[in-house]
Amino acid sequence: QVQLVESGGGPVQAGGSLRLSCAASGRTFSSYAMGWFRQAPGKEREFVAAISWSGGSTYYADSVKGRFTISRDNDKNTVYLQMNSLEPEDTAVYYCAAKGGDTVVLVTTMGRGAYWGQGTQVTVSS
């Protein structure tokens, strides 16, 4: 019912910035908590950031806190991830997730049961 399409990934040098976008279609976008997760080759999926349906509450992994900012525009059915001060360790495929309910549940369940996009590659070189 919900389709998610990520964009904005690409190569960037360490210290640079990227802005990822996730465009949603289908069910009412504003009723879903939204989040970003990432996965590097050989590693488990990692939580990055999440935002409540209203945009009033945000959550960040310690590894990105202070560098990344998640936001959403319900009128445009889009969630964003502004990534600053990128590090080589940020290299991964970034996935957008949508799930009805409490944002905390999306985070603590690591997106289990959520709708997922296809991902966008972020490669940070040093």
Give your account of this protein's structure.
The protein starts with a strand and ends with a strand. The strands form 2 sheets. Strands 2, 4, 5, 6, 9, 10 and 11 form a 7-stranded mixed β-sheet that branches. Strands 1-3-8-7 form a 4-stranded antiparallel β-sheet, with no helix packed on it. The chain has one helix at residues 103-108, and strands spanning 3-7, 10-13, 18-25, 32-39, 46-51, 58-60, 68-73, 78-83, 92-100, 115-116, 120-125. The protein has 126 residues and is mainly β. It is globular.
- Give the biggest sheet: 7 strands, mixed
Tally the helices. 1
Helix content: under 10%
For this entry, what is the oligomeric state of its chains? Answer: single chain
Tally the beta strands.
Answer: 11
Q: Tell me what portion of residues adopts beta-strand conformation.
A: over 45%
Dominant shape = globular
Rg value: 13 Å
Report how far the terminal alpha carbons are from each other.
40 Å
- Derived from helix and strand composition plus strand pairing, the structural class reads mainly beta
One letter per element, helices H and strands E, the order comes to EEEEEEEEEHEE
Ranges where pLDDT stays below 50 over 5 or more residues in a row are none
Query: What is the average per-residue confidence, as pLDDT, rounded to a whole number?
Result: 94
